[in-house]
Write a structure and sequence with these properties.
Layout (H helix, E strand, L loop, with lengths): L7 H7 L8 E2 L2 E2 L3 H14 L13 H14 L1 H10 L1
Antiparallel strand pairs: 1-2
Length: 84
């Protein structure tokens, strides 16, 4: 997965903008860092959602979260933080 994973310093910079906590009602919440890695993989590869490797989780879940974050403005805040 070389080149597909955020470095620790990159993750720490955007972590405060990632919604969700460490634990939900039914156990651990989904992994925000893995989700960001999935988005980076999609951007680099230009692939369709269905082509997302299984290591990132079910593509339907990633796709649903992606559109939910767009509606919530999360991705805009992350991009602004990285650009600053």
């Amino acid at each position: 997965m070389e080149g597909e994973v955020l470095r620790d310093d990159q993750w720490e910079r955007i972590k405060p903008f990632v919604p969700g906590g460490l634990k939900g009602k039914r156990g651990p919440r989904s992994n925000g860092r893995r989700f960001i890695d999935a988005l980076l993989w999609m951007a680099r590869s230009g692939a369709r959602w269905r082509d997302l490797p299984e290591r990132f989780g079910p593509y339907q879940s990633v796709k649903r979260r992606y559109y939910r974050w767009i509606e919530m403005g999360v991705l805009n805040r992350i991009v602004a933080a990285v650009a600053a």
